[in-house]
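Quick one:
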Amino acid sequence: MSHVLIASDGSECSKAAQEFVASLPFREKPNVKLVAATPLPVTLSEYYVESVLFEQARHTQNTVIAPRTTAEAERLRPQFASVTTDLRIGDPANEILDAADESKADVIVLGARGLSAIPRFLLGSVSDYVCRHAHQSILIVRAPHASGGRKAELHLPPRRILFATDGSDAANQAIDRFASWKWPAGSESKVVIAHQVVTAFGMEIAAVDEPYRTAERLKAEAILQSASQRLSKVFSSVETEINNSSQIAHTIVEEAEKWNADLIVIGNRGLSRWERFLLGSTSLGVLHHAPCSVWVEKHR
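Output:
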């Protein structure tokens, strides 16, 4: 991986995203582009023309956004091969997507921004739109929840990585990517497969004969064995698990909570001919409900 795009908006979530990606143990330092988009001011007045609104946005960009982004770039430069800034005016989500395509980014990094009193259950509108439409892999950084009046902190670098796999090209690409990095001693990984089952009133209703079940389990075990062999070269421990579930995204999120994961890694699988542009329902469900940061790998 050689090009990383980090979206910057000055929020605490954005700062956490920068710190998180700076801590990742890349084998070779990537080039980073910090993108900050200034939206045009919203007005209901008919007397405002676009040129006036643009000048207002330009003033904000020059006096607020540029100094902040320059300071962020200076702070990040020691951790990367290079750090550049890209200041834009327009809709933030679309500007981030355009910048990622233009710079041939391998991954887009964003902070999760909650819209409710329980922020972990919703992505901010910009993050959600980018996740749904990006051609690139996505890293959404979510800080853990504080409890008991104490401030929660990110584990940097992440030490417990949960891989949700189905043997797809995207899932294998993600495992190979993380297996190529230099994880510190004590880093742990877990690989899970969640089989989809159809249920009604808590009971499985899909008629599946025993030979099929056996074949599917053998296939899952082979996928887990392959993943384990690759990950064991860089992680101190690798656990594996097979789950049957009627709600795969829920099962992955639940497993991350029980295992206290710092990061979930999942491959994207679109459900239609538009899969290049839309996240699969499992990936999107995990992104919205995960208790930790999430990496969604898109096969390219």
